[in-house]
Design brief:
- The chain is an alpha+beta fold.
- The protein is built from 15 helices and twelve strands.
- A five-stranded antiparallel sheet has the order 2-1-5-4-3, with helices on both faces. A five-stranded antiparallel sheet has the order 7-6-12-11-10, with helices on both faces. Strands 8-9 form a two-stranded antiparallel ribbon.
- Strand 10 and strand 11 form a beta hairpin.
- The radius of gyration is 23 Å and the shape is globular.
């Protein structure tokens, strides 16, 4: 192991936490310092697409792991109690020599991807357990007790980097919450396990009449609504390209009033980080409200569109050609194209068809 390089890597992890250095670059250095072939940084529980950062050479392995939901059957999960107790865990804490030779996790997953023995260095962010995983190559030896002691020394620096990243990610959720309040939109935020972690002021006014929120879960007078909400949130989070239940709509029963409608979307782009608390957004609509909402206010709040961009996007969503939209907005065609490029960037779309489909889901 290279202790000096490990120290440099922890500095880079802090830089990654504030967005100066990409996580995979910092992890590359940490892997080299730890005598490993590759590395990941991850939550230990409720792993979902996007929740694991990795070195350049561990990308394919990590995507395979998440796509095939190996976290549900991973033999290394047995070592979590040791990780919580000692702050570090290796394969000796979760598997036997015979399992190294026979278990599918080692022989059908790790080995074909060029990795084998691992060491998890754990640290807590709030009540969430995270770890940096160092994976050695197929021909390398396991991590020794002395090497584990060296890695253990860097846990505090890892925790600082993770805490800073968590705080910064949380401010983005707070900003979205404030934006929704400003445009009178009812918003809920879900963590990666499908629990509700934040409800803005507008959404709070819609509770009551039999709808309650306790310990991150909704209950209504109709049995099963709460379970459907959580399942929909988890479904949206597990499928980054879409929304829950196809259209993302969930009905919430109320006493003496029509059902509320909840639409759930997975957050994307710069809103997400491995240490983020919010992973999905729910928009609540009350059909008993008399005032007709501005169809584009959710899109403006969610994507930061200007009034002009929102107007152009709204007109395009009705099927109008860009040239016609330019005439209606009294701008040149080139100016309209410039606005459209900005809209594509902010909404993470690249074609008008994608944009129209996204806006139709929101409205």
């Amino acid at each position: 192991m290279d202790i000096e390089l490990l120290g440099k890597a922890t500095d880079l992890l802090f830089e990654a936490s504030i967005g100066i250095t990409p996580w995979h670059d910092a992890l590359d250095v940490f892997a080299r310092g730890g005598g490993a072939a590759g590395a990941n940084i991850m939550p230990i529980r409720a792993q979902v697409p996007g929740s694991i950062e990795f070195t350049h050479n561990a990308k394919e392995m990590t995507e395979f792991y998440l796509r095939n939901e190996l976290y549900k059957t991973c033999v290394r999960a047995r070592g979590i109690p040791a990780l919580e107790r000692k702050g570090i865990m290796t394969d000796k804490d979760c598997a036997t020599e015979d399992e190294y030779r026979t278990d599918p996790y080692y022989q059908e997953f790790l080995r074909p991807h060029g990795f084998f023995y691992g060491a998890y260095v754990g640290f807590n962010i709030d009540n969430d357990l995270y770890a940096i995983l160092l994976n050695r190559g197929v021909d390398d030896v396991p991590f020794s007790e002395e090497e584990q002691a060296i890695l253990h020394r860097f846990r505090n620096q890892m925790s600082v980097a993770g805490t800073v990243a968590r705080k910064l990610a949380h401010t983005k959720i707070e900003a979205m919450d404030d934006a929704f309040d400003l445009v009178d939109v009812a918003g809920l935020f879900f963590d990666r396990a499908g629990n509700i972690i934040r409800v803005n002021a507008k959404a709070q006014t819609m509770f009551g009449h039999g709808i309650n929120l306790r310990q991150g879960q909704i209950s209504t007078p109709r049995g099963g609504d709460g379970a459907r909400v959580r399942a929909a949130a988890c479904g949206a989070i597990q499928h980054p390209g879409g929304t829950a239940n196809g259209d993302g709509l969930i009905r919430l029963a109320r006493d003496g009033r029509r059902d509320l409608v909840l639409k759930i979307h997975r957050l994307r782009g710069s809103l997400l980080d491995v240490f983020n608390t919010g992973w999905a957004l729910g928009i609540l609509v009350d059909p008993d409200e008399n005032q007709r909402p501005d169809d584009m206010r959710v899109a403006r709040a969610l994507f930061g569109l200007t009034r002009t961009e929102a107007k152009i996007a709204s007109l395009l969503a009705t099927g109008k050609e860009l040239s016609h939209v330019a005439d209606i907005c009294k701008v040149t065609y080139e100016t309209a194209r410039t606005h459209l490029r900005a809209i594509f960037t902010k909404t993470d779309t690249s074609k008008q068809g994608q944009l129209i489909a996204l806006l139709n889901k929101l409205n």
